[in-house]
UniProtKB/TrEMBL annotation:
SUPFAM superfamilies reported for this sequence: EF-hand (SSF47473), PH domain-like (SSF50729)
Domain spans labelled PH: 13-128
PROSITE patterns associated with the record: EF_HAND_1 (PS00018), EF_HAND_2 (PS50222), PH_DOMAIN (PS50003)
Gene Ontology BP term (one): intracellular signal transduction
GO MF term (any one): phosphatidylinositol-4,5-bisphosphate phospholipase C activity
Protein name as catalogued: Calmodulin
InterPro entries xrefs: EF-hand-dom_pair, EF_Hand_1_Ca_BS, EF_hand_dom, PH-like_dom_sf, PH_domain, PI-PLC_fam
PANTHER family: PHOSPHOINOSITIDE PHOSPHOLIPASE C, PHOSPHOINOSITIDE-SPECIFIC PHOSPHOLIPASE C FAMILY PROTEIN
């Protein structure tokens, strides 16, 4: 691991440990909270005050954050300064997070410049890393599109999509679910998917809400995991297969005469679960850690 990697690893470790940051509102109200980065590094949130029984802390998903600004580079801080709510010397402690396509803003004040800079650096790194992963996903989906477009029409029919799902992605889907996803992606209503529409179709496919809700229910801390990052470990999967799905897998054996024999057996061991992860999980990092994400379900 290079020095830069070690430094960034340390930065993210400190963000996970958390720091007290003060939320500032344009009307002058302020709220001191201990902010922290989630263990899976996919969102930022804060610890709820014990006296606040109702409501949940807001979750700021990394994939929703557009920009991080250090200093008074936001209208809210400018107005607070103008109204005398903050001092000009506070600028080296100020941090603004723009998210949801710049429609929303979070304005924070750290205890010191070092803490502000640490959070600014860490969040910027996470934004860049997410952008790189997103680009990688687009390349993957474009490759799927080209391989499925057998007639080179620059569009995919339902039949071509079905063939891609079953032959390449090993996805079996009820007709009604397939029709729902296809129609939702087919914004042109031509009964064909352009490359852009196929990307939407693929994202709908891999982020199906029903699977997400199932995984949330059977995963530790599932309610805090985003749809992009949620995953199940081997023990969680084993329990899920045994108690919920009563899952069976195909076993290939040979008879005494050397003939191939196919039988079905229940999933009872961690090794069986790992084999399923190896077969269906698209993310190499998750596979190596014995984890199954939404894409692999």
């Amino acid at each position: 691991m290079g020095n830069d990697d070690k430094h960034l690893t340390n930065v993210l470790k400190q963000l996970k440990s958390g720091a007290v940051l003060v939320k500032r509102k344009i009307d002058g109200k302020k709220y001191s909270r201990r902010f922290f980065l989630s263990e899976h590094e996919d969102f930022i949130t804060y610890q709820k005050k014990k006296r606040h029984i109702f409501g949940r802390p807001h979750i700021y998903n990394i994939n929703d954050i557009d920009e991080v600004r250090s200093g008074f580079r936001a209208q809210t801080f400018g107005q607070l300064l103008k109204n005398g709510r903050i001092k000009s010397t506070d600028e080296n402690r100020a941090l603004s997070i723009m998210y949801n396509n710049h429609r929303n803003e979070l304005h924070l004040m750290a205890n010191n410049t070092q803490t502000r800079d640490l959070w600014a650096e860490g969040i910027k790194y996470l934004i860049d890393r997410h952008a790189q992963k997103h680009q990688g996903h687009l390349i993957r989906e474009e490759n799927y599109f080209r391989s499925a477009d057998t007639d080179k029409s620059n569009s995919l029919s339902k039949r071509e999509c079905r063939r891609l799902l079953s032959n390449t992605l090993n996805v079996e889907m009820p007709d009604n679910i397939f029709e729902q996803l296809f129609q939702k992606a087919d914004v042109s209503r031509e009964g064909l998917l352009t490359q852009e529409e196929f990307v939407s179709f693929f994202q709908l496919l891999t982020q199906r809400k029903d699977l997400y809700e199932i995984m949330q229910e059977h995963t530790k801390n599932g309610s805090t995991q985003s749809i992009e990052k949620i995953h199940m470990n081997i023990n969680e999967l084993l329990t899920f297969f045994q108690t919920v799905q009563n899952q069976k897998i195909i076993k290939h054996t040979k008879t005494d005469g050397g003939e191939n024999k196919i039988t079905w057996e229940y999933i009872e061991t961690a090794d069986q679960v790992q084999k399923l992860i190896d077969e269906f999980e698209l993310n190499k990092e998750l596979r190596e850690k014995g984890l199954l994400g939404l894409d692999g379900m």
